[in-house]
């Protein structure tokens, strides 16, 4: 089926997709990797506050770009229009691989790990693959069915986070926490370990821009897209800070260090082994919402790329019910490859590194588009301009620099993914000629 997709999605669906993309593996797993290099509750919570500020500044900037250029495809569409089709293709390539397929794999693996913590011997990889295949089928069948499922599970996910925060507040034997800054904890904010930990935090916030990928399917993108971006980011930031405070309050840092199942450890401490196991299963089930959202959104990028490039034309095919079935099949295949070939931490690092590069280019596009097209109709203008986009760019460049120095292997993998994308673009251009 050809032609533009119908505009059927509303504000609540756009916001729930962004929330579901953000709230997944990162907040329930990354604290264990942060405490080793940043053993201070103040510094650890500042990681999540700072991560929220960075994401909020990015959301404000994306709101202007998405409302002015309302087409599905995310950075692929925006960078193609603002800079050059080559940069747009590169960002689309990154989104289709590291941007959505890799985080989908991480969320699916985390689901398996949480279940394995309760049921030793549980087949983590096979369960992860089964979850991905199930949602690929659901989102291939119907946009309405996928939206209904997404909205419902996102509400459950928010309720579960609030339950954990309230349980942490009422916990009877809290750990001693240094929530006020000291000279030592303040110095940690400028350390390489803090910068690398921000990579994990930025990964947890990945998805704050998810609403822009479905702009072409929103009923009123000029009004609803900026609202969805901003509201979802603020809500998730508050939940993230509260959750990590609850985790630190209920589990000693020494027990958290190096552990991926942070939510499981905290749930057992708060509710006891039996109830903790049940809540751990609930957290695993909530990972399904993240997997669902990423399958739903990621396929929209490759679908739009297929509409624009003849060599990818088959990815633009949609079913009679307007679902991008070919793009979903492609993304599912890449996700399964990540599940069976990469480690949890490696995927998290190089996915975050690649995405920070493309989102930084997109936010910089606010300045570029205002200079090149000052007369373009802008239903929404970035609040706090130019400070908001500058804060986002400065923070991301700082993190990228430290990651290049501290994690050269994962950085090289991220750059390799981008180089492969440029090769595919050049091959496609040559064939077109």
Number of strands: 0
Distance N terminus to C terminus? 26 Å
Number of helices: 18
Roughly what percent helix? over 70%
Average pLDDT works out at: 81
Please tell me what the overall shape is: globular
Task: Find the structural class using helix and strand composition.
Answer: mainly alpha
Report the β-strand fraction as a percent range.
under 5%
User: What's the story with the biggest beta sheet?
Assistant: none
Q: What order do the helices and strands follow?
A: HHHHHHHHHHHHHHHHHH
Q: What Rg is obtained from the alpha carbons, in whole angstroms?
A: 21 Å
Task: Describe the protein's architecture and organization.
With 433 residues, the chain is an all-alpha fold. It is 76% helix and 0% strand. It has helices spanning 11-22, 25-29, 31-34, 41-68, 75-82, 85-99, 101-118, 124-141, 143-169, 183-188, 192-205, 221-250, 253-256, 262-308, 325-341, 344-372, 387-406, 408-432. The two termini are 26 Å apart.
């Amino acid at each position: 089926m050809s032609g533009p997709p119908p505009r059927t999605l509303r504000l609540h669906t756009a916001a729930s997709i962004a929330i579901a993309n953000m709230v997944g593996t990162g907040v329930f797993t990354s604290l264990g990797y942060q405490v080793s290099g940043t053993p201070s509750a103040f510094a650890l919570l500042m990681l999540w506050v700072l991560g929220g500020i960075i994401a909020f500044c990015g959301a404000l900037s994306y709101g202007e770009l998405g409302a002015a250029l309302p087409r599905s495809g995310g950075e692929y569409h925006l960078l193609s229009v603002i800079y050059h089709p080559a940069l747009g293709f590169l960002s689309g390539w990154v989104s289709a691989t590291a941007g959505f397929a890799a985080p989908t794999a991480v969320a699916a693996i985390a689901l398996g790990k949480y279940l394995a913590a309760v049921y030793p011997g549980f087949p983590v990889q096979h369960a992860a693959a089964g979850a991905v295949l199930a949602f690929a089928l659901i989102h291939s069948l119907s946009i309405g069915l996928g939206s209904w499922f997404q909205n419902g599970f996102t509400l459950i996910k928010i309720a579960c986070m609030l339950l954990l925060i309230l349980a942490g507040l009422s916990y009877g034997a809290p750990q001693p926490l240094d929530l006020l800054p000291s000279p030592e904890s303040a110095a940690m904010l400028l350390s390489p370990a803090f910068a690398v930990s921000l990579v994990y935090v930025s990964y947890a916030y990945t998805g704050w821009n998810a609403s822009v990928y479905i702009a072409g399917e929103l009923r009123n993108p000029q009004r609803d897209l900026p609202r969805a971006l901003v509201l979802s980011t603020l809500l998730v930031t508050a939940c993230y800070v509260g959750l990590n405070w609850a985790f630190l309050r209920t589990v000693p840092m020494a027990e958290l260090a190096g552990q991926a199942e942070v939510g499981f450890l905290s749930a057992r401490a708060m509710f006891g082994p039996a109830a903790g196991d049940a809540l751990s299963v609930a957290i695993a089930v909530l990972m399904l919402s993240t997997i669902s959202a990423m399958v739903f959104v990621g396929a929209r990028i490759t679908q739009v790329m297929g509409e624009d490039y003849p060599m990818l034309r088959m990815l633009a095919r949609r079913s009679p019910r307007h679902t991008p079935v070919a793009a979903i099949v492609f993304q599912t295949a890449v996700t399964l490859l990540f599940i069976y070939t990469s480690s949890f931490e490696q995927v998290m690092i190089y996915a975050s590194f690649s995405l920070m590069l493309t989102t930084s280019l997109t936010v910089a596009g606010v300045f570029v588009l205002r200079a090149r097209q000052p007369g373009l109709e802008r239903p929404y203008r970035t609040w706090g301009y130019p400070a908001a986009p500058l804060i986002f760019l400065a923070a991301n460049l700082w993190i990228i620099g430290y990651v290049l120095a501290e994690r050269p292997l994962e950085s090289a993998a991220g750059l390799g993914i981008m180089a492969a994308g440029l090769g595919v673009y050049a091959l496609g251009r040559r064939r077109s000629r």
